[in-house]
Amino acid sequence: MPSSHGAGFARRVIDLLEGLHGCPESVANSYRCPLTVHEPPLPGAGASGRRRRPPPGQRPPGHPGAPAAGPPAPGAHAPAHAPVRRRRRPPGERPGAVAPARAFAPSPAPAPDAPLLLPDRTVVVDAPELLPEATIDTAPAVDAPLFLPDGIVATAPVVSPLAWAPQDAPAVALAGPPPAPGRVITTVGWMPGVEALRGLAATAVVVFHMWALTTLPRFQGYELVLGLGVWAVDLFFLLSGFLLVQSFWEQPRTQSLGQYYVRRAFRIVPAYYVCLAVLFVFFANRDVLYSGIGLKQVAANLTFTQWFSPTTASSLNVSGVFWTLSIEMVLYALLPLLAWAIARRPLILGGFLFAVGFAYRLYVTIDPQWLQDKVFRAVPDMHEDLKRLFLLRQFPGVLPLFVIGMLLRWWLHYRPGVRPATAAPRTSVLVLLALLIPSIVMLTPGQKAVDFRNAALFAVFDVAIVVLLAPALVYAARTVVGRLSFLMKTLVWLGRRSYGIYLWHFPAVLIALDRGPLERGPTMSNVWARLAAAGVATLVLGALSYRLVERPSLAAGRRLAARLA
Fold first, then answer.
1. Among 65, 123, 188, 397, which one has the highest count of C-beta atoms within 10 angstroms of its own C-beta?
2. How much is the pTM?
3. Is residue 181 part of a domain?
């Protein structure tokens, strides 16, 4: 039996509940008074509070059991209270459910320094000019793109629900079908560290050609400078494989196959054609240009096939970098198939593609006599070292580098069960440079690596460099939520203009050294002033190419791709 004090306390609690909630005495005595506010019964509800099913004559119009609508009978009166039918909640309003909304209303435009929210990642960039192509601070139009690295764009349906919340009105209709319920949006946002790597690669190519085209004396460790060209090209190939597969792996898909080819063509071809026209018309040897050999070279360069044959690989000696564009174009053509294979069985098919490329490298290293007889029939007197190097740097020999980049991207962002990485406060340039040191040290035996007689180095050298570059790429492939440092902004600026820098630096160095199209030796008087002028001219030409050619051509490619959607 409870004590009198305990009974008095319990009674006071019951009195309090009765006063607050109007609890009936019979329920209060059972100590089970529900702590809810009573609402008046719904129209049509009985004594139990549950709503009765209205008879057919009182069901609202449109109800399956309602009689056909018609004029009221004479003398009939409308009910005083028409039965109210509760609205069924749409999927987006049910607890724990997400509706595949087709329309999103724009949220208010953020402040200039507010973060730019992208699917599965958060990117904050404190300077609008550092964003890839454009900032997104208002609701996108129907065909407005979301800019991603290297000209890759994602259309409006993948805009993050964090940035655009569904509203009743007004709404912006989104093009294309909505993502299926339960599908994860795997689009990854902009990574400034990757842009910085591209800026470092472009700088390394310029430094290498400045040194290689002069007769500067050798010094302790000059092998590192002579190896920067190979290092930069391998890094570019790694980044191409890493970045371009996003177009095929993100969910939902943001572009068709035709749109992908259109955007790639408008990204590469216009700036290349402008550079090619200027160099051939104003810089190449006129006698050679208008000969049969020159016309063959022009045709090969216009079709990006100059590296397919040793007779057209020189590009009339006006540029030493056009050969890489031939390999990139082969990658663009085969990338849909490669991306499909690696996405289907990443480790098995990715490993198979890597093995095929590495087997080709071994074949070129050991005994490619049959292939040499076929390829060099027109130039049988070419030196054996150059023959092997030319064969090694064809697309099959570069394929392992692309595959490593694709597998890294799959592992970081697209493998099953991977969680979105936490955005970092910043990407440290010092850490990035420290992670690049092992790959640069690998350049020490670089001169031996271009000689097929050193079989192990010749076959493995490029692959080893890319493997050593992988930690730096993993670190760079992060989104950032803090302000970019001045040094990082500089590298990102260079990375955004790396294509123009890559195209125009070679003729700028030749002009500064008064070499013409590699027809005479360099002028070494005031060589450092000449090289400084070549560096400034390279930056100016790269910036002009980006501003006047690349950005307008990218915009034209997006418009044409939107028409194909």
1. 188
2. 0.69
3. no
